[in-house]
Amino acid sequence: MEAFECVFCQKNYPVDPFHTFCPKCQEPLLYIGPQTDKKFHHNKDHPLEVMLDFLPLDHVNHDLSLGEGNTPLIRLKNVEKNFRLPALYAKNETINPTLSFKDRGTALAIQKAISLGIEKIGTVSTGNMAISTAAYGARAGIKTFVLVKDGAHREILNSTGIYNPVMINVKGDYGELFRRSFSLGKKNNIYFTNSVDPFRIEGYKVTAFETFFQLDQRVPDFIFVPVSSGGHLIGIIKAFHELKQHGFIKKYPHFVGVQAEGCSPIARTFQAKKLSVERIEKAETIAKAISNPDPPGGNILLRMIRRAGGTIMSAPEDKILEAQRKLAELEGIFIQPASATTLVGFLELAEKGKIGPKSRIVLILTGSGMKASKKTKKSDAQVLQASLSDLPDIIKSVKSD
Amino acid sequence: MEAFECVFCQKNYPVDPFHTFCPKCQEPLLYIGPQTDKKFHHNKDHPLEVMLDFLPLDHVNHDLSLGEGNTPLIRLKNVEKNFRLPALYAKNETINPTLSFKDRGTALAIQKAISLGIEKIGTVSTGNMAISTAAYGARAGIKTFVLVKDGAHREILNSTGIYNPVMINVKGDYGELFRRSFSLGKKNNIYFTNSVDPFRIEGYKVTAFETFFQLDQRVPDFIFVPVSSGGHLIGIIKAFHELKQHGFIKKYPHFVGVQAEGCSPIARTFQAKKLSVERIEKAETIAKAISNPDPPGGNILLRMIRRAGGTIMSAPEDKILEAQRKLAELEGIFIQPASATTLVGFLELAEKGKIGPKSRIVLILTGSGMKASKKTKKSDAQVLQASLSDLPDIIKSVKSD
Fold first, then answer.
1. Whether residue A153 has pLDDT greater than 90
2. How far apart are the C-alpha atoms of A242 and A31, rounded to whole Å?
3. A16 pLDDT above the threshold of 90
4. What is the tens place of the pLDDT at every residue in B3-48?
């Protein structure tokens, strides 16, 4: 009935949280559920319950939830006006319990873990995922291992440490650490829910389903998603695939994955029309949250994009912070640089005339600017100086423009 | 039909965003709406639309919204177990667009401002409110003035500045600045939506309404709210008052306002059974977000608490960070110290036997720990050190306890 599938080898394996990759070709496995009739339960409040038929869960344990999901989809009319653009929406995944889209995946993974009697979880991360996994592990009351790269940002360590996980700072190659975590997990009964964990990817589907219903069951023409390991966009494409399969939609959106130029191995491969992503040696980008030089989901993502229709592009580094500021100044939404790549990518395609005037576009905003590093919080804002007595004159002097 | 009311002078004034205080007694005014039949519109998605009959709005302009509200109410079973407590819930207001409850009030104020044709807004704040007002001002595309106290935290200035408001750093007494902002606003057509703005308070009501419906229309026995200027708790009490007035409930919750001991002018006044709050000279608390030595809503809050039933208490400074950590470690929720005072207050009342074993308790969590200062992010978490080769042994050595 249900299985983990390797789309490359066209082979099914038993569902097993300790198997993220195909033992034959080492590509990530995807969960496939029973092929029964499925519907959405709109009378439910919790998004995982609304989407239950489409997820690898029998029920939702509310004691494990932190209230993830039901994030706003908001129209960006000021950006539209400013750049003379068609209907533009932001799906704001930063309004999640730990301020990033990772909570979608972690929420699903933790539901699954507890239902299977798993007692230890883990993750390999230097950012959003570390925080999210530590938080949900604490909520579930299970031992949580967070393996971080040596030299990780102090701010992230603090925000992860507050949940009191087992944090291990590991010296050595990060890609190697990522791969080894799985065998270590297996040996020690720790379910490593890393970036391309099949259950985590199932959680990301929920974002796409929500967006579809928030648009009154219309398919966006374009959907822009920041790409690092690939897991997030894989989940979103998979959701639209299932919507099509079950007759809810007839066509796909044009999926646009955006990487930061300083670390864009998947975009390079896509542009070169190659099939297999090559690891890059040096990643240097302001968009730390999507800085993965050796993305484990790269090949499967390229395959899915080619089948469903879409693009993987890269956002020039010098435009990322500018887009981040624009979104804050024009719409009051403060995001991480990683998320700002979607606006950069969109503006580039619009400028090239690739987006029709009647299009409906969705940008998926993945992480909050509030937890970004100081360097990325530099604003153009000037701070005027006043005393109580000269304040009236200073206020008067501000032009209304 | 509608008016701004002074509950002390029992006098009504015209509704006017440029009038926050009674011209006679200088106490904050409260909005009163037309006394028609009111109902909730549960078929709507946006909380302001669900509650529209109870709010000073004719309609909701979605272009001004950042998707505030619909925050989770989650059961804290681990805290319950750990401390042997009755049913405990957290209303997590940190999952709002700018990570604090202020967005509830700002969202309402900005709707009202734009519907009245106001072109400039402002606020006086050193923290959450500055960020929230700057964000909503940007979203509305209007000039936004943020007056900050000299010496405000750099982190807050950055997170506010990103939205590009007019920021003015004002030297001099903060209480004086607060009061003067209103006359300056009037002169310069800037609507100052400060902490006890009647429209802001109307926005806080929505949190109480949501909680009531999330509890399947049951009234919590106790509701704990951090108290600074008083505006937030005033709004919450007002909401339950209106629920009673319109026949939705028969009794009030026991309202518990919690201040941090190092700045607890309202709690002191309450405990001393006095009516009029005296400004304290020196505020020294770890809970910066509720550090107001001269709370403008103090007297009206005391009056409302005495009428509806409740307490204003203070949380010992040395227990605040401990409670903050406990909530993170046990439930995966990371809050500002200001919010942690609710858990401290609750545990104290529980210990004193003041909370029955069958009670239903709600803690209102007001601000995210992610934007708190570094000092308050110190966790107990130990970071283990490993290389790739000794990682297996280190993982194995971690006890399962």
1. no
2. 12
3. yes
4. 999 999 999 999 999 999 999 999 999 999 998 999 999 999 999 9
- Cβ(A70)–Cβ(B210) below 8 Å: no
The crossing angle, in degrees rounded to 10, of helices A154-161 and A128-140 is: 10
Separation of alpha carbons A236 and A258, rounded Å: 14
Binned at pLDDT 50, 70 and 90, residue A378 comes out as: low
Q: Do B99 and A190 touch (CB under 8 A)?
A: no
CB B258 within 8 A of CB B345: yes
**With contacts defined as CB-CB under 8 Å, which chain B residues touch A371?**
370-371
A269: pLDDT confidence band, cut at 50, 70 and 90? very high
Query: B240's torsion region: left (phi>0), alpha (psi -120 to 50) or beta?
Result: alpha
* Six token digits for residue A382: 């000037």
CB A80 within 8 A of CB A87: yes
Give the per-residue pLDDT at A142: 97
Cβ A168–B384 below 8 Å, yes or no? yes
Q: Which residues of B touch A388 (CB under 8 A)?
A: 170-173, 176-177, 180
In this complex, do B395 and A168 lie within 8 Å of one another by their Cβ atoms? Answer: yes
The domains found in chain B, sorted by start residue, are: 73-99+198-377 (3.40.50.1100)
CB spacing of B184 vs A160 below 8 angstroms: no
Minimal Cβ distance to A172: which of B180, B371, B387: B387
CA distance B1 to A139: 48
3-class DSSP state of A200: helix
Q: Best of A163, A171, A176 to disrupt the B interface by mutation (most B CBs within 10 Å)?
A: A163
Counting residues of chain A whose pLDDT is more than 70, the rounded percentage is 97
Q: Residue B345 and residue B343: Cα distance in Å, rounded?
A: 5
Q: What is the mean pLDDT of residues B167-190?
A: 93
What's the angle, vertex CA A237, arms to CA A236 and CA A242, rounded to 5? Answer: 100
| Tens-digit pLDDT profile for residues B62-113 | 999 999 999 999 999 999 998 888 999 999 999 999 999 999 999 999 999 9
Of the partner residues A63, A159, A379, the one whose CB lies closest to the CB of residue B370: A159
Give pLDDT tens digits for A185-239. 999 999 999 999 999 999 999 999 999 999 999 999 999 999 999 999 999 999 9
Whether residue A387 lies within 8 A of chain B, CB to CB, comes out as: yes
Task: With beta carbons less than 8 A apart as the criterion, state whether A108 and A202 touch.
Answer: yes
Contact B321, B335 (CB under 8 A): no
Backbone angles phi, psi at A343, to 5 degrees: -70, -40
